[in-house]
Amino acid sequence: RGFHPFWCATCALGFPHQVAYQDHLRSDIPCNVPGCSYAASEQLVRIHHLNIHENNLRNRMSNNILHQTRPM
User: Fold this and answer.
1) Least confident of 6-15, 16-25, 60-69
2) In whole angstroms, what is the distance from residue 67 CA to residue 59 CA?
3) Domain count, the chain
4) Has residue 72 been placed in a domain?
5) What phi, psi does 64 have (nearest 5°)?
6) Where are the beta strands (DSSP E) in the chain?
7) What pLDDT digit, counting tens, does each position of 26-46 carry?
């Protein structure tokens, strides 16, 4: 598959030429969650957001509900 000296640190794709690498970097969009450094194609960012941020929010919410004390 050839030598790829240019690597995207975010998505781990390799590129044989700097021009292709720079084009790729321009196509990456960042995740809009504050403090998250993930960036990729729009579709991958959408999947990342669902899997990481929304699932974490659901898990935290269900944990909060499970750990709430009920009045007797």
Assistant:
1) 60-69
2) 12
3) 1
4) no
5) -65, -40
6) 6-7, 14-15, 29-30, 39-40
7) 888 999 999 998 888 889 999
What b-and-e string marks burial along 46-71, b requiring 16 or more CB atoms within 10 Å of the CB? eebbeeeeeeeeeeeeeeeeeeeeee
Q: Taking the C-alpha atoms of 56, 62, 65 and 66 in order, what is their torsion angle to the nearest 10 degrees?
A: -120
Find the mean pLDDT for residues 42-71.
75
Pairing of strands 29-30, 39-40: antiparallel
Position 1 in a domain: no
Residue 22 and residue 59: Cα distance in Å, rounded? 37
What is the span of the domain harbouring residue 34? 6-67
Quote the distance between the C-alpha of residue 29 and its chain's center. 10
Say if CB 20 and CB 6 are below 8 A apart.
yes
